[in-house]
Amino acid sequence: MQINNKPIHLEVKYNENYYNKQEFNDFFENNNIKYISEDIKGKSLYLINNTVSQTKLRDSGFIIKRDVSKANVIVISDYYKLKSNYSYLTKSEVGIHTRYNIEHFFNTYNQYNNYILDTELYKYLYKYDGNQELFIQCSDLLKSRQEDNIRIAMEFMSNANWETNEIYLQELFNLYWFDCIRRNNYKDSISFKGFLNSLSFPYMSLRLNEANDYRELCTKQEHHEWLYNKYIEEFQEELDFLFVKHKIKLDKIEFSIDKTIF
After folding, report:
1. How crowded is residue 250: how many other Cβ atoms within 10 Å of its Cβ?
2. CB neighbour list of residue 258: distance below 8 Å, 6 or more residues apart
3. How close are the terminal C-alpha atoms of the chain, in Å?
4. Helices (DSSP H) in 131-220: which residue ranges?
5. 51 with 90: CB under 8 angstroms?
6. C-beta separation of 73 from 44 below 8 A
7. CA-CA distances (angstroms) from residue 76 to 68, 102, 114, 179, 213?
8. What are phi and psi of 117, to 5 degrees?
9. What is the DSSP pairing of strand 16-20 with strand 93-97?
10. Which among 59, 217, 40, 176 is positioned nearest to 118, based on CA atoms?
């Protein structure tokens, strides 16, 4: 029998907890988990999952509690997004890795009204402003291909607030994820893994190959100008090639930055 619509735990195998898929989906789609909306800076936290660096949290003024009843805020992961879709699962099952302490959450969720997602904590941990200047600094470090420099760049990336300048963060992943970032051991740290989990874009499959791919990321005049400068030489080379190819002499041409967003 289900209590408070809690999905029935079926079994543990392959290091995953298994649930009925329909029950699992219904729980997260129909239950109103009571999240905190106010500022929680300096509050005491209880971490159900070890997905955010406790050292960083303490350095940012938070207090870590080992007793859930004594914490101002309970930190959980977005379990619905973490559910597995592996080929060995049947259509009626869903799994979630045991490192995410979801059973603890299921057993206590109806007792508290002070939850927050671990990804929401990062805005309280940022030390730097993620801007064009930091982007250039990180890019230079990553471009060096030196392990220590790459680690420093990754620390800058994960400790900066890129909210209003996501175009630069995506460009760093676009240019350096495959041959640089993913090969560095710092990628497996709690701090950087938590940062990756907080990202809203598919950093592992990101492909920004031409100017038009950046269109929706340009939210400021600065972004438009950065993108224009990134591609203007390529545009002029292609234009010159067309004039030669078609035996045309340039008499007059006018163009400007396209600021439209789809």
Report:
1. 9
2. none
3. 49
4. 132-143, 147-158, 166-176, 190-198
5. no
6. yes
7. 12, 9, 10, 32, 34
8. -75, 145
9. antiparallel
10. 40
Report the predicted TM-score, pTM, of the whole model to 2 decimal places. 0.73
Q: What angle do CA 61, 67, 69 make, to 5 degrees?
A: 95
Mean pLDDT, contiguous 10-residue spans, the chain (262 residues): 72 92 91 88 94 90 95 95 84 92 91 91 89 97 95 95 96 96 94 89 94 94 94 83 85 80 60
User: Counting Cβ atoms within 10 Å, is residue 59 exposed (0-12), middle (13-18) or buried (19+)?
Assistant: exposed
How far apart are alpha carbons 158 and 138 in whole angstroms? Answer: 11
Q: Closest by alpha carbon to 151, among 108, 117, 192?
A: 192
**Distance of CA 233 to CAs 149, 228, 237, Å?**
29, 9, 6
DSSP for 18-74? EEEHHHHHHHHHH----B--S--TT-EEEESS--S-HHHHHHTT-EE-SSGGG-SEE
Phi, then psi, of 88 in degrees rounded to 5: -80, -5
CB 54 within 8 A of CB 64: yes
Q: Which two tokens stand for residue 139?
A: 């890019």
What is the rounded CA–CA span in Å between residue 99 and residue 51?
Answer: 9
For residue 92 the two structure tokens come to 């009626």
Phi and psi torsions of 94, nearest 5°: -140, 145
Structure tokens at 98: 């045991």
